[in-house]
Specification:
Elements lengths: L1 E8 L12 E8 L7 E3 L5 E3 L11 H10 L3 H54 L4 H35 L1
Antiparallel strand pairs: 1-2, 3-4
Length: 165
């Protein structure tokens, strides 16, 4: 089955008025779906465009995959399912790594703080170097207080942003 599509070409004077536009007939072999493309009564080409968002096309387009390729719709659905499974695995991996990094950071910070406090206590109690021991203790206390207050302020900001959004 052959379809005809008319294409308008401007005349040599580049005047685009309807009486001076020449027409050239183009022959095609079933390239134009009559449900989507068609000619109106004036002979002008009329087409309709479809669009969708998401991994799965609408049922009408999905049925077209079955017409074009055996089990085409099933292949599209399997592709969407594989993509979703991959995305879920990636999110799970990312969340797991972030959780591990937070726990490792807490363990490292706790170990470092404990070691620093023990060193300052040793310097204060068992040696005659009370100045460096006291300085180390005060610095450690200020660092822990700053980290605690900073985390609390960050949490309060995040809660305020969540309440707004």
């Amino acid at each position: 089955m052959e379809g005809e599509i008319s294409k308008a070409e401007p005349s040599s004077s580049q005047d685009l008025s309807t009486d001076k536009v020449g027409r050239k007939e183009l022959k095609t072999e079933q390239s134009a779906n009559p449900e989507i493309l068609g000619e109106d009564s004036s002979g002008e080409l009329v087409f309709q465009s479809y669009g969708f968002t998401g991994p799965i096309p609408p049922p009408g387009i999905l049925a077209g995959y079955d017409k074009a390729l055996p089990n085409g719709a099933d292949r599209v659905m399997k592709m969407a399912e594989r993509e979703q499974e991959h995305r879920h695995k990636m999110e799970e991996t990312i969340v797991g790594k972030e959780s591990f990094e937070k726990r490792a950071g807490l363990v490292f910070a706790f170990s470092l703080s404990t070691l620093t406090l023990l060193l300052s206590a040793y310097l204060l109690i068992f040696t005659e170097k009370s100045g460096p021991g006291l300085t180390l203790f005060i610095l450690e206390f200020a660092a822990l207080a700053g980290a605690f207050l900073g985390a609390r302020n960050r949490q309060e900001r995040e809660e305020a942003e969540d309440a707004e959004g």
